[in-house]
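In response to a reviewer's request, we include the raw inputs and outputs for one of the modeled complexes. The two entities were modeled together in a single run.
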Amino acid sequence: MGAQLRVYKRRIKSVSATKKITRAMEMIAASRIIKAQRKVAASEPYAKELTRAVTAVAQGSDAKHPLLTETEQPKRAAVLLITSDRGLAGGYNSNAIKAAEQLNTRLAAEGKEVDSYIVGTKGVAYYGFRNRPVKESFTGFTDNPTYADAKAVAAPLIEAVRAESAEGGADELHIVYTEFVSMMTQTAVDARMLPLSFDKGTESLGAGDGVAKGGAAVMPLYDFEPSAEDVLDALLPRYVESRVYNALLQAAASKHAATRRAMKSATDNAEELIKSLTRLANAARQADITQEISEIVGGASALADANAGSDR
Amino acid sequence: MAELHVELVAADRKVWSGEASLVVARTSSGDIGVMPGHQPLLGVLESGPVTIRTTGESGNGTVVAAVHGGFISFADNQLSLLAEVAELTDEIDVERAERALEQAKSKADEDAEKRADVRLRAVTAAR
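The model returned the following structure tokens for the whole complex.
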């Protein structure tokens, strides 16, 4: 076998091994999307009812609550960025990070300091490499987040919002995550969680997770047990948790979808590569054969010439 | 007879939904019973059993669920019970809850003790 041909054969072998791996990853991701989507759907009733309840209290009572009222001059904003722990998902992480960067620039332009909270190794690595301060980071559960994870993420956020601005408390709470629009489309979005604003707020409540369509409808007058303030006090942390949970689930579903797409194109590329390498290998083999034949023919005719010469 | 529609939802799933004639739950200021036509209500739930007297399609009977904190909201004959964690008594493993209670007591883990206690109370209430 010619040297050239051996090189091609070796490359084809290695590319097909890679192709097998990417195909397997594609299939794993595909099955995980379904699971993640199911989880998003299962979390929806709770999110919907909770949003309805928050809207009801906020509109149905004149209770003043730090989590509802806008500060006159917001100085500090907390931004929660949700990325994934692992790569191989195409532009998934860089899109989310880009969206967070844009939001940070916008907030900075409005004269607010930004505190970053990050979920996922990829985001942490991005900020770590650039020596940016990170308030708090969470890793290890992005593939399959549970409600307990969402609680753990939400706890420092709620604490930050509760604290006084002078003591480093945040006046606003933003979240950046990748929304799962469909199997083919996932978009990085940013949304303001707190304070809730109800003219635009009902819309943004719904835009994030497809809930609270009836936000504009007039709510009945509720009886609060024990009091509107207490209900609100208990309700808003749960609301933040449920929004974080929903964002984590959507981000997980989006990540799997992005991985599936990236791995599908990797498999396609590997196939393409194998095809062209096979062509080259065939050409090399043909060249080898041709050369061998011409050598044999050349050798034979040389022999024949030599024999003919000795006969004479 | 008038009936109200109940949705019992936990953070990660819908636990139970159906028609009922009476729902009894414990709010932070005491037990409250909600019947059809009740005034709109929004309350904070304590950890404890919630009793749902079912009617209509779900048949006459009683459904008891262990609810670990949450909210009750009622308007237009729609009652929703929101809880971070909620389980029907059928789903509760009594032996496991008892073991958990023992363990929690020996470790002085208050949260775990409360959780196990609520489960056991719900099971007793269902009997």
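As requested, we also summarize the result in words. Chain B has two helices and nine strands. The longest helix of chain B spans residues 110-126.
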